[in-house]
Structure formats: structure tokens, C-alpha cells
């Protein structure tokens, strides 16, 4: 059965059971501060389990793109080593929100697996929760009784809290679960050992394929459990593992989910992959297989993350994506011999394979390819740089073991993979101090955990209120009641209180717009300041440093009107900027991210080249023309998404929209948007672009300002212009005067260079007298009164007269030390000398480093006082 049919039959089956089929949410989570990525099928439904929203249907089914590489679910280092772990995977799921429970969930799971997919019953095992005295939760007798009507009791396994009690996190909804495992071993293996004994023991052919979670409890901050007001079903079936079972394979990678990618990797690299049924393969072939599996898995995760809006970067979710891609690159580099970018070429195959089910990978194909290729180029250069640095470590190493701290520095500072370090060291006959490396890695992890640790108390409910109303589009103040609050503590922010109101005028950070600030005023005049506002699980949370005295009172919630006006101005300008870019650069422009604050706006968009100065002026003029037109805001709230799209609204990629949406229109600019906006474009006053540049391959970024910030900018520019005029003695045409000064400066530089060249030639004769012959080499190490370029000229001048020259010149031009080493090509090989190694070693004395070619290299540093010692040590290379 083809994977496309597996997916379709699952969705068709649950549709026949009254479930509404919904699309996968983006793999990247933008408005959930507790998660970077969708790591399970239930993540997009958290608000319903928490009681903060109502689903469109009490029964839902879908296939969800998931990504697990960090936090509680960290499988990254196992991916590719085994045959059933992945970074990105699909989770087939069916959900009940207070509707059906254990009986229906279990019976339907069994019906689908055995009657629709026709998996032999004798290959299946199930587990139920054995109970927990610690949590005072009894053995799941109900699930056991249901299962024993479907399967022999000797195939029902009791599972402990670790395996059969599912929790969203340290706090929140949770409950016992019932797993279904499939035994894919050969008949001979089954005869030797029952599958029951291999369940949950990491056997690659006895794997869990489906988990039915029965959510009936809420985990409180103190660890205790309380019953939820409604019982829910949350199930997840691993699509890749299911395909393995239905296609008669013993590895996920041998299914048609991965084989098209694997065959393309073989074509590109010339490497060969052996499927899991081939035995007796060599160690070299096994490493090649692992590398191919790593690349095939990782390109899926990276491409889908980029398609959903997450570009690789050095922080947060972007760093996770960069880390996954770099792992794939280094496996290709080390085991497949790929020294040039190649992973980006796989996006085409991925698009063909999965584009029907996940159209975003098709529409964003060019972006994914460009970004991955750029990342590959960058990291391959990092690997080259790392090899040079590792050479220096090896050169300076004493003994047969390289210090783990030095290896960690290469890994942490330069991104050089530790396994590649270990491989190169072994090839050089050296060992890696792995214990020292792991020690440093653990210290870093502990520092990171300490910095990001957040301790949250339970919500203290004051008023039962299922629906929190947002009235911030129309009002900036409102009489509110606090419905619940909790205390949160973190290393970063200290003690913070989170407050939820029955209604709020405060906009919670989402959609790229920062949250409102303001205050809460009690009836007695006491004030609590709201320092930020967030959105989490469909509720607006207000952050404060303290609590009101009387929590049950009525308060006047007041938004900072000045900051809101500035933020709204920037948000509306973002829409006009988007429109202008599409009109001037072309309709291929797509928004790829934005940040709207009260001080400025940032807009990322897809474009194939740098935006010229002339184009930027056109865009700026376009936006300011719309501002001068005084276009009124036309807003439509709660309209069907299809209607909004028919009316020309632009839906942003990677965003999760409901069935009902809000449409914002200024003239011909029409977008779906939940943010705050000005009532009229004239309120923006003026739009000014501050910068334009590249974020990644095919992604550009514009930063701009409006309203008061634009006014302050122009005032600052006027002050600067006056200062320039004064410096130019009030020249009538300051631009013309500056150009004249630049021309004069250029001429003086040329004259200076000519004088320095003459000085170097004149010095040549004097320095030739100072050369010492040491072991057949004409040697000189000396500080010279030249700039670095003059030292280079001097070295080459001397080099032209000798074929056995070794010189090291030091300069301290403008207080910056520089070492220049020249070695005659004739003695580079004969004496095994290398100018690059010389300057790297001597550079330590001036607290710097450098490199170059074997016959010529330079090193810069910070410590001028170290020049003398560096020159004194130079002679050691020719003795």
C-alpha cells in the first residue's frame, strides 16, 4: 500500500465516524511561548484541552507535521543511527473533545488496523496503565476490559507511568494511555522470543505505532492530580512506522516515504544504500547507510520548517533548524565525500513526493532550495576554517591526547562537529579527551537550562469564565474583573504575576505585533502596571510585577495609548509596504515575517536580488502617497475565510487561520490580520525606510519608522547636516565640499603609498646587512617602522634577491600589532617550513592569529607588548 493511500484511508475512516478533517497546523509555532515547534498532534488543540476555546467540532481527525529535536522529546542524535526515529514525522490523530471516550477510541483503532489496514492480529500487542500509588490513580480496568473483547489477554501488557501515562508537560491535562505495538520480526525470531518481551525495549522491529491517550486529569504545580471537567481523547499514530508495517518493511527508511529521497541522494553523491534486509554489510557501508538516512530525514525537517516560516539562525527555533541541517551536511561531508552543496537539490524530490498532501512545500520550493544551499555553502566554509584551527591545535598539542576543552571551543565557538574532530584526530594517531569535552558540554547545558528555567504556579481561579472577550480594537480602557492569576518565576525576569481578565482592551503579542503595556487601576486609586501582554493557548495574559491588594475587585484596565498609537501606525505601514513591494518589485513578493513595535517595523519578504536605491525610493514614495491619500480603515470582523480571499485578501504563509477571519483594507491593500491599526492612513504621518539587506538566500529585510520616530529622525538629520556645514566652515554646497575632500584624500593616500614603497626599497639594503645565515637559511626577525602593506612590500623586495630567505617583520601601525612572514618557495618544501603555521604560532604572543600561504602569511593581534617575544621565538623555526 502506497503511503498516500495509507494517509487517505486513515482520514476517510475517521470521517466515516463523524470526525471533521482539518489540515495540519504549521510545523513552526509562532504564538505559543511554551513550544518552538509542533511536537505532537495535540499541540494545535491545547486551548481546547485547557478549556480556553471551543473546537469547530467535538470530533476531529488530521495528519500533523511534527518536529522533535529538543527539550523533553530529544531524538536528534538517534536519528539515522536507528531505523525508526525521525526529526520531522507525521502524526495521524483522532480527537474527542468531551464527546466519546475509551470504548469508541479503542474499538475504532482496532477496526482500522485489523479490518481496514488488515494488519494480522497475531502481530499486535497492546498496553494499559497499571496504575500509580504515587498519584493515587488506579489500574485502568476499563481499558483492560475493552481490550480483552478484541485481543487475547496474553497480548495485553501492563505499562508503568513512564510508558502509559501521558502528560502535556510538568503541568496541565494528562491521563492514562493505551499503546498499540506491532511485531515485524521474522517467524524465526518470533519463535525464539515472544514479542511481548520486546515491547518498549527498543527493538527496531517491535515498535509502538499508535497511542490512545485518555485525558481525564489536570497536573497541578505541586504534582497532584485533579479531575478535568470533561474527558477527552487524544490519539497519535506514527505515519512512517505504520507505512513500514503495511509495506512489509523492517525500516521506516525502506518505505516509499523515504526511498525517493534516498535514490536521489545515491544519484547525486554516487554513494550506495543497502536496505535493512541486507545482512553482513561492512562497517564502511553501515556508516554510509547512516549518513544517507540522516540526510534523507533532515532535509524533510529543514525544508518544511523553512516553508512554514522558520529560517535558520543563531537563536531559538532558527538555531534548532540550523543545527539539524548542519548535522546532515557534516554526515555528507564525512561519509559521502560531499565537499559541495547538494542537500538543496533534494527539495525538488520532496516537493513532488509530498506536495499534494502539504502544498506549502510546493509553493515555497524555490525559497527552501535557496536557503538550504546558502546554509550549506556557509557551513562548508566553517568546516574548512575548522580544519585549519584543528591543525593548529594538533601542532601545539603535547602528548597523544587532545584536551577536551580545546575540542569544545572548536565545537561551541566555530561550530566544528565533535565527531569530525575525533575522526581527524584518530587519523593523525591522536585521541580525544571525550570526558573533558562532555564535561564542558554538560556545563553549557546547565547554564542554558538555568537561564531559561521557568517555574509556574497553578492558576488561582477567582471567577469561572470560559470565554475572555477582547475589546481592544474599539476601546483602550475597560472595567474588568480578574478571572484567574498565577505566579511565575524565571532567571531572566525574576518574579512575575500573570493575570487573566474577563474582558481586555490589551492586545497580546501575536502575529508579529508586540503586546500592549499599561496599567490596572483599583477603585481606591491603587495602580498595578502591566509591563507586557502575551497570548497563550487562546487567552490573553497580562504580566505584572505585583498583584492588586483586592483581587476580587473591579478594575479599570488602561492601555498605554501613546505606545498603542505608534505600534498601530507601524502595523498599518507594514501593510502598505507589502502592497508597495508587490507593485514595484512584482507579485512574486511574499511576506516571510514581520516585527511590529512602537519604535519601528521590520518586514521580511521573498526577493531574488538586492533592492536598488532607486526601487527603495519608489517604495517609500508609494507608501507615503497612500498616507497622503488619507485612506480610511475598512475592517470586516468574523467573516468566512473563503469570502475574504474572494474579496482579494492576502493570507500570509505559515499562519494558522480559523474559519472566521478579520480582514483589513486600506484602499487596494487587503490582508487577513488580527493586529491593531490606525483609523486612517494619515495618522501614520510619514514612512521612512532605514535599511534594506539580506536575511537569507532569497529573503530580504526592510526596517522602517513612522510617525514620531520619523519626525525625530528628520530632526536628527537636520542637526547632523548643520554640524557638517560648520565643520566645512559653512560651505554653500556641503556635498560638493565633501567630494572634493575625498578626492584630495585619495590623492594623498596614493602619494603616501608611493613614499612607503620608496622607504621599503631604501630599507632593503640596510636590512640585507642584518641577515644571519642559520642552517643554510638567510634569517631575519625585526620590527619595522612601516604599515602592514609596507612590510609586505619590503618582504617581497628582499625575497626577490634570495632563494633561501626566512623573514618575520613586525609592525605596530596605529597601535595594532601585525606579523608578516615570508619564506622562499625553494626552502618551503626542502625545510618543511610553512609561513601559515609560523604566524599562527607566533601570533599567540600578540594575542591574535592569522594564516596565509606556505610562503607568505600574516597575523594580526591585540598585544603590542608581545612583539619582542614573538620575534625572539621566530628563530626556533630555522634552528
Descriptive account of the structure:
The structure is a single chain. It is built from 25 helices and 34 strands. By secondary structure, it is α+β, with helices and mostly antiparallel strands. The protein folds into six domains: 250 residues, Bira Bifunctional Protein, Domain 2 (BirA Bifunctional Protein, domain 2), CATH 3.30.930; 119 residues, no CATH class; 54 residues, no CATH class; 106 residues, Elongation Factor Tu (Ef-tu), domain 3, CATH 2.40.30.130; 143 residues, Threonyl-trna Synthetase, Chain A, domain 2 (Threonyl-tRNA Synthetase, Chain A, domain 2, 2-Layer Sandwich); 125 residues, Diaminopimelate Epimerase, Chain A, domain 1, CATH 3.10.310. The strands form seven sheets. Strands 1, 2, 3, 4, 5, 6, 7, 8 and 9 form a nine-stranded mixed beta sheet that branches. The protein has a six-stranded antiparallel barrel with strand order 15-16-20-19-18-21. Strands 29-30-31-32-34-33 form a six-stranded mixed beta sheet, sandwiched between helices. The relative contact order is 0.05. Its main location: cytoplasm.
Amino acid at each position: 500500500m502506497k503511503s498516500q493511500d495509507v494517509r487517505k484511508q486513515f482520514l476517510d475512516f475517521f470521517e466515516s465516524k463523524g470526525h471533521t478533517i482539518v489540515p495540519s497546523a504549521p510545523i513552526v509555532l509562532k504564538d505559543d511561548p511554551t513550544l518552538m515547534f509542533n511536537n505532537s498532534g495535540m499541540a494545535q488543540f491545547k486551548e481546547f484541552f485547557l478549556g480556553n476555546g471551543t473546537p469547530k467540532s467535538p470530533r476531529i481527525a488530521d495528519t500533523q507535521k511534527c518536529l522533535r529535536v529538543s527539550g523533553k522529546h530529544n531524538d536528534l542524535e538517534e536519528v539515522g543511527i536507528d531505523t525508526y526515529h525521525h526529526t520531522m514525522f507525521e502524526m495521524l490523530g483522532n480527537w474527542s473533545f468531551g464527546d466519546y471516550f475509551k470504548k469508541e477510541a479503542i474499538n475504532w483503532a482496532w477496526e482500522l488496523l485489523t479490518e481496514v489496514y488488515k494488519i494480522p492480529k497475531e502481530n499486535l500487542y497492546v498496553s494499559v496503565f497499571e496504575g500509580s500509588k504515587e498519584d493515587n490513580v488506579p489500574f485502568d480496568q476499563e481499558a483492560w476490559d475493552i481490550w480483552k473483547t478484541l485481543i487475547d489477554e496474553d497480548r495485553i501488557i501492563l505499562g508503568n507511568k513512564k510508558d502509559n501515562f501521558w502528560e502535556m508537560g510538568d503541568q496541565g491535562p494528562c491521563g492514562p494511555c493505551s499503546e498499540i505495538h506491532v511485531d515485524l520480526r521474522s517467524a524465526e525470531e518470533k519463535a525464539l522470543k515472544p514479542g511481548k518481551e520486546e515491547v518498549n525495549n527498543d527493538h527496531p522491529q517491535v515498535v509502538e505505532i499508535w497511542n490512545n491517550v485518555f485525558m481525564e486529569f489536570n497536573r497541578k504545580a505541586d504534582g497532584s492530580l485533579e479531575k478535568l471537567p470533561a474527558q477527552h481523547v487524544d490519539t497519535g499514530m506514527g505515519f512512517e512506522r505504520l507505512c513500514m508495517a503495511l509495506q512489509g518493511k523492517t525500516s521506516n527508511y525502506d518505505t516509499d516515504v523515504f526511498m525517493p529521497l534516498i535514490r536521489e541522494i545515491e544519484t547525486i553523491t554516487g554513494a550506495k544504500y543497502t536496505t535493512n534486509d541486507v545482512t553482513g554489510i561492512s562497517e564502511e557501508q553501515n556508516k554510509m547507510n547512516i549518513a544517507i538516512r540522516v540526510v534523507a530525514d533532515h532535509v524533510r525537517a529543514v525544508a518544511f520548517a523553512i516553508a512554514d516560516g522558520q529560517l535558520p539562525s543563531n537563536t531559538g527555533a532558527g538555531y534548532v533548524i540550523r543545527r539539524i541541517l548542519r548535522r546532515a551536511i557534516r554526515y555528507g561531508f564525512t561519509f559521502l565525500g560531499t565537499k559541495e552543496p547538494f542537500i538543496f537539490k533534494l527539495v525538488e524530490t520532496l516537493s513532488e513526493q509530498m506536495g499534494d498532501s502539504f502544498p506549502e512545500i510546493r509553493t515555497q520550493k524555490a525559497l527552501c532550495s535557496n536557503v538550504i544551499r546558502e546554509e550549506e555553502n556557509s557551513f562548508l566554509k566553517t568546516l574548512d576554517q575548522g580544519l585549519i584551527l584543528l591543525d593548529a591545535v594538533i601542532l601545539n598539542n603535547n602528548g597523544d591526547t587532545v584536551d577536551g576543552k580545546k575540542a569544545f571551543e572548536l565545537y561551541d565557538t566555530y561550530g566544528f562537529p565533535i565527531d569530525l574532530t575525533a575522526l581527524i584526530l584518530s587519523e593523525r594517531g591522536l585521541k580525544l579527551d571525550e570526558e573533558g569535552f562532555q564535561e564542558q558540554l554538560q556545563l553549557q547545558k546547565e547554564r542554558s537550562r538555568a537561564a531559561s528555567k521557568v517555574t509556574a504556579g497553578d492558576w488561582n481561579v477567582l471567577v469561572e469564565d470560559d470565554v475572555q472577550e477582547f475589546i481592544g480594537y474599539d476601546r483602550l480602557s475597560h472595567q474588568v474583573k480578574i478571572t484567574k492569576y498565577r505566579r511565575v518565576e524565571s532567571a531572566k525576569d525574576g518574579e512575575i504575576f500573570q493575570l487573566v481578565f474577563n474582558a481586555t482592551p490589551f492586545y497580546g503579542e501575536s502575529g508579529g505585533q508586540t503586546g500592549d503595556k499599561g496599567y490596572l487601576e483599583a477603585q481606591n486609586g491603587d495602580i498595578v502596571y502591566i509591563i507586557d501582554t502575551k497570548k497563550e493557548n487562546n487567552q490573553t495574559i497580562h504580566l505584572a510585577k505585583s498583584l492588586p491588594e483586592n483581587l476580587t475587585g473591579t478594575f479599570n484596565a488602561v492601555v498605554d495609548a501613546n505606545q498603542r498609537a505608534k505600534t498601530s501606525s507601524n502595523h498599518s505601514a507594514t501593510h502598505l509596504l507589502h502592497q508597495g513591494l508587490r507593485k514595484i518589485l512584482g507579485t512574486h513578493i511574499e511576506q516571510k515575517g514581520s516585527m511590529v513595535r512602537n519604535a519601528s517595523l521590520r518586514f521580511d519578504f521573498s526577493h531574488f536580488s538586492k533592492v536598488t536605491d532607486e526601487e527603495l525610493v519608489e517604495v517609500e514614495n508609494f507608501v507615503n502617497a497612500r498616507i497622503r491619500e488619507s485612506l480610511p480603515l475598512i475592517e470586516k470582523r468574523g467573516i468566512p475565510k473563503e469570502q475574504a480571499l474572494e474579496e482579494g485578501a492576502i493570507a500570509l504563509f505559515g499562519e494558522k487561520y480559523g474559519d472566521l477571519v478579520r480582514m483589513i483594507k486600506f484602499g487596494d491593500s487587503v490582508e487577513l490580520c488580527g493586529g491593531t491599526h490606525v483609523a486612517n492612513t494619515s495618522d501614520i504621518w510619514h514612512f521612512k525606510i532605514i535599511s534594506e539587506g539580506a536575511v537569507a538566500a532569497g529573503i530580504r529585510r526592510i526596517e522602517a519608522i513612522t510617525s514620531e520616530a520619523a519626525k525625530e529622525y528628520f530632526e536628527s538629520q537636520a542637526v547632523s547636516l548643520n554640524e557638517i556645514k560648520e565643520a566645512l566652515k559653512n560651505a554653500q554646497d556641503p556635498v560638493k565640499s565633501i567630494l572634493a575632500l575625498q578626492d584630495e584624500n585619495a590623492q594623498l593616500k596614493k602619494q603616501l603609498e608611493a613614499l612607503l614603497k620608496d622607504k621599503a626599497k631604501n630599507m632593503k639594503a640596510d636590512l640585507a646587512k642584518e641577515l644571519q645565515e642559520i642552517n643554510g637559511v638567510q634569517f631575519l626577525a625585526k620590527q619595522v617602522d612601516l604599515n602592514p602593506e609596507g612590510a609586505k612590500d619590503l618582504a617581497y623586495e628582499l625575497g626577490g634577491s634570495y632563494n633561501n630567505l626566512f623573514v618575520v617583520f613586525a609592525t605596530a601601525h596605529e597601535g595594532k600589532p601585525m606579523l608578516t612572514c615570508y619564506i622562499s618557495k625553494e626552502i618551503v618544501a626542502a625545510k618543511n617550513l610553512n609561513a601559515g603555521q609560523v604566524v599562527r604560532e607566533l601570533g599567540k604572543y600578540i594575542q591574535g592569529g592569522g594564516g596565509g600561504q606556505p610562503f607568505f602569511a600574516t597575523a594580526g593581534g591585540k598585544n603590542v607588548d608581545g612583539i619582542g617575544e614573538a620575534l625572539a621565538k621566530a628563530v626556533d623555526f630555522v634552528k
